Amino acid sequence: MPETIIVIGAGHGGAQLVDSLRAGEFGGNLIMIGDEIHRPYDRPSTSKGLLSGSVELERTFLKREQFYVDNKIDLRLGTSVSEVDRKARTVRLSTGERLTYDKLVMATGARARRLTAPGADLDGVFYLRSLADSQAIAGRLGPGKRLAIIGGGYVGLEVAASATELGCRVTVIETQKRLLARVAGAEIAEFYCQVHRAAGVDVLLDTVLEGFTGEGSVKSVRLTDGTEILADVVVVGIGSIPNAELAAAAGLAVENGIVVDDCGRTSDPAIFAIGDATNHPNDVIGKRLRLESVPAAVGQARAAASAILGRPKPFHELPWFWSDQYDIKLQIAGLSQPDDQVVVRGDPGNNRFAAFYLREGRIVAVNSVNSAKDFVVGKRLITEGRVPGVGRLADPAVPLADA
Questions:
Q1: How far from 249 is each of 84, 87, 276, CA to CA, in Å?
Q2: What is the pLDDT of residues 203-221, one digit of tens each?
Q3: Global pTM?
Q4: What CATH homologous superfamily does 4-111+240-308 map to?
């Protein structure tokens, strides 16, 4: 009998995995199970182009529908897995059907962290994690609409930019003393705070939510100081939780995500896991981590496919991310810490600069704004363990590679 591989999850990681397996001449059965009704799509577009209407729905799909037909991939959409029986090597679907696997890959992703504040269940309070979420939110936005965003991270700020471009009146509410507190340096946070305020966004920092008011539908956001902010729509972006419960119930090792090695192997040799739901090792930065990153999900998928095919190529890449807000592109490579030395290269006033983060003299991260060259060269310098001259690094007249 031909070997059967079942993939739970139809996101970036799952799509790359089946592509890599077929490209690597895997000739067995491939079954991909996705709980959404859409085939794999570009998830970052949901808070950017798809939400603002600048990108058509069809352009967000990662592959044409014919790809799955031509490659004999059994795509089961609108379906979830309720149980994994490791002993029998079967999965039970939400339809009640049981499928048998030789190898199983969990690409279950992460879900939005939800609020428990009073009124959080009112109509008009949204979370953005899926294409359907994006479409539902977009249907409520438009000129003059009042949008309140809870959380000043990537998702919140991208939604703020998209909604502002649609003519909405936007308020961002952040409990921390600055934006992007968990994902970017203070210099980048201050820059984006100024950018959003200049675009008309009301940014409230060090501000705590108490709840929402309204009868049936949300009418306002109430803060702990008693202030009420009128809102027709609310979008909550306060982080995510890895979808690791299925793995835990099956008895796999789970600790801030499904624990895997550098090829996505779990504690069961027949089961792999990739993407946002995993806790994986990274030799480049020297520690284990859980990343919510398209590049990481794609890289892990390729590594898992290589191991399944018997030609293992471990995943060890420098973490990198990006964010598009208005006409400004932020690109981040590496992971900075609050006590890192910071060197700014370029002029933030011109919307084109980069902040380099040094630890014990070595570059460990770069946050670049509209400066793709600094990002690309910076990535290389980080992996090389470069110890730059601080003065030369800060001088745009000095080629970055020579700093």
A1: 8, 13, 18
A2: 999 999 999 999 999 999 9
A3: 0.94
A4: FAD/NAD(P)-binding domain (3.50.50.60)
